[in-house]
Every structure is written in C-alpha cells, then in structure tokens.
Amino acid sequence: MQMIGDLHIHSKYSGGASRNINIFNLALNSAKKGINILGTGDCLHTSWLNNLKTNLIEYTDGVYYLDKVPNIYFILQTEIELIWKYNGHLKRVHFLILFPNFEKVNESLKFLSRFGDLGKNGRPKIYSSVESIIFGLKAIDRRIEIIPAHIFTPFFGILGEKSYFENMGEALGGSINLIHAIETGLSADPFMVRRISELDRFTIISNSDSHSTAFHRLGRESSVFYLNKINYRHLIESIRANKIVKTYEFKPSAGKYYYDGHKKERHENKLDYYCSPKLNLEICPYCGKSLTKGVLSRVQKLHDKKYTENISFQYIVPILSLIAVILGGTEYDRKNLFLYDKIISNNGSEYNIWEGKSNFKGLPEDLISAINHVRKGNFWFMPGYDSNYGKLQINN
Ligand SMILES: [Zn+2]
Ligand SMILES: [Zn+2]
Fold it and tell me: Rounded to the nearest whole angstrom, what is the distance from the C-alpha of residue 261 to the centroid of ligand 2?
C-alpha cells in the first residue's frame, strides 16, 4: 500500500520549536494533512522519550501508534548536530537518524551521551567525528538508518557552503558506504540533487523538518512509500533500495536558504538584501560582511551534469498558506483556519487534494483557482534567503 511519510520533525524540546507540541496534536494534525507515517522527533531527549514510551503502543516491529489516533504510525526518529574538527575547520552537520525500536534508542543514547549532553536540546550537539559516530551507531544495530539532513543548507548541510566539504566522499570518509539516502531540505528539489553525479548513488527523501504542529509546517514536504507490510524493516528497505514512489516538494525558492543574501537583522539600515547567485557576489553591499550563500549557488558550484529527466516528485504549497495569500492575513488567523478545517472535512485530508481527489464544494472561487494553479505548476515565489522564507505569488 502507498503511505505518505514525514520522517523528520521536532518536539517542543528542540531550539526554535513551538512549546505547544505534544504527541497527540502531532498525530491529529498529521491525520488532517494526510500523513500516514510520522517521525517522533527528538527521541534521544529524556523527557520526550519518556513521553513517547508512556503513550506509544507497538503496532508492528518498530512502528507505533497512539490509542486515540490509531491511523497515524510513528517511527522513532531524531536529528543530531555533529561537531568535529577536520583540516583546521570546525564542522557542524545535521543528520537524521531512524531507530528500529526503543531498546536500540536506549543503547544509542548511552553511546552518544559520551559525546554530548542529550538532555539539553531535542536536537543534541554531539562532539565527535562523523566516522566514529556512524560506525558506532551501526555497531549497535545495522538497522539504524543515518541520513544527512537538508544537505545543501549553508550552516548545517553536509554539502552546504559553511561546511567546506567538496563532496560526500570527503565529508563521510570510510563511512560513506553506510549511508543510503539524503534529505533534499526545503530549499532544494530532486532536480538540483540530480545535477551532482556523486549523489546518484543515494535515495532522495523529503521531510518537513517541522518545528510546530501548524498545518503549513507539518508535512509540507514528504516521501511516498510503497510498503507490502507496515513495519520498520520494510520502510528501511524501501529507502535503501531506492524504491520510493515519489517525493512531495516545496518549491526550492520558497525555502529559507535559496538565494544569496542577508536578512535585515544584520543591518543598521534594517533592510534585507538578496541577490541572484548569478551575480556571484561574495560581500554584502550593506554591511561589507560575507553574504550567506544559498542552496542555488551551492548547487551551481558543485554540479557536474544536467539534471536527469523522469524524477518522480510533485511540487505542493501548504493549503493553509494558499488560503492566507488569497484571503489575506496569516496562517494563524481564525478565519483562515476555519476555512482550512472546512476543506479538510470536505476532502478527508490535505494530501487527498494533491493526489487529485478533491471536493471543492462551497470554497471561494479564487481559492479553487489557486489550488488548480499550484497543481499545474503555475506559481512562483519571491525567493527565500538567509533564513527568510520565500513569498508565494500566484499567476492569474
Ligand atoms: Zn537540521
Ligand atoms: Zn549584510
């Protein structure tokens, strides 16, 4: 059966995350989005882990659910920040990790707590070399899956501009053969990934990296799996064998690190600056410091081929964001959330609309037209840069 998975989210214990996140509203909102399999987020954090152990019931090997929301399946998941020194540079890279069961989470927790404080942040900082951590986790259990997260983002992506790695081989050394997949991140899509030959060996997966339960964050990117059985082994095998049906993608220009630029907080004149990577600008004209180079410029630098055709993915825009653009206001306004709820009750879930099964009864004409524009790819964004999201524009 086909299952939509969002395998990278965060709990309220991660930096910058909403304080309202709990396991129940994650499950309830995922059901409205149409997500079938959700990462737990932050499963190495003691308080969150206790919460998970108290509330989750085992469905099959490595798959869990909540009594009150039985149709959402959870996979034990975290993100870590790995920090190590290499060639005189301090490397800070994010990795997504999936675990086969609670026992292996406990063993990994013991191992990783030698290299960092796991109680401090939902996404813990681990001070050790990438090879020792990957080999160490794999020695605990080969089924543990380690995936470089949002690979091109400037500060924490393995190929991001501030990581100063030329390629995955240099970054991962001997542990490269234990890595099977990479995460695109919001500012990149599979076309960009497939312009770099070295990445051809890796499966592409997409996730929301959501730090909240809001409907425009949770499930804004996802991967569609075809599973004969719903269990951890089948999920991991489909990732390792590159059998993912397709990914749902944010338009890269909507992501926070697409163009080169500086956000206004960096400037005395309180103005943002951004520019196309075609300008090849290194220095910000407002403050004279080096610009935050975006994902597009990074891919331009690293690419060695044209993208491969026939990559299976689909661009989407969170319906709640469409509503906010069409009706005005924000994704947090009550009238917009009210309309969103109406759409969900008409359609069962948001993803049903992107899957082509939609019931537009009673919706404003311009919203129906906007949804159809997105389906046809007839939309664009004022590009995002330096941690500012892009701004949606719909063609008429
Ligand atoms: Zn991250
Ligand atoms: Zn500047």
Answer: 7
